[in-house]
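Need tokens for this chain, all 289 residues.
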Amino acid sequence: MITQFKEILEVSIVSFGEVDLRVYTIMQLLLVIIIGKIAIWSMQRLINRQITKDNINPRKGYAISQIITYLAWVIIIVLALDTIGLPITVLIAGSTALFVGLGLGLQDTFKDLVAGVVILMERTLAAGDIVEVSAGLVGRVKEVGLRTTLLETREDIVIVVPNQKMTSQNVINWTQNRRAVRFTIEVGVAYGSDVRLVEKILIECAKKHNAVAKKPLPAVHFANFGNSSLDFKLLFYSSELFRIEKIKSDLRFMIDQAFRDNNITIPFPQQDVWLRTPLPQQQDEFPSM
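Here are the structure tokens for all 289 residues:
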């Protein structure tokens, strides 16, 4: 029985060059992959446990988890190739020209890979961050990969952004400081309105909204004497960064209703037009013959 089992393990499945792939080789290969995946899972679970206990900052924990995962897979691949008898050094030496060609053709890919490592090492981005990239695109980071970053927009659309764009362009990370962010709503009222009443109404509307932070308190700035209106700015803080446009919309509804209840008018743009009466046409000094 044992002899038959050994014979089964020695059965050659694929043989090419110096590589002779047998049944026991495949079993070793599977064992390496399984042990590697268990090790990765155990490490990620340990890191998540430390994050839950507040022993590790979530951003730092995420970066460490990603880097360990990538390094572990590199080690697993190397061990797997060594297990099947594929000489790594010979493969690398024989593929130098191929690597040079790939390097020239895949420069952007390598830039993305390097940028991904930089992002993970510096922890400038992490899953859950709210960021604003070029062209006013605002999204929540779903995942920071080694080559790309996945962003979920306010329209619930997932966008794949190359990592080099996240490092070479100006990116605003709204959640970097982990504090509430200040936002502004601009509104104009008609000349002759009670400006102190306008200030009171704007602050009360902000305080009534649950998503507006209690501290710092909302404030109102008398911004300008406009061409058609007295211009005000309502300044408020909020931690609901991803859906802030919805909060601003709610406040505008509240402000409009409060103005109506207090007979405060939001004026239309106005422009004065002066009509000048033309002078009567002068008669000729000498009448025509």
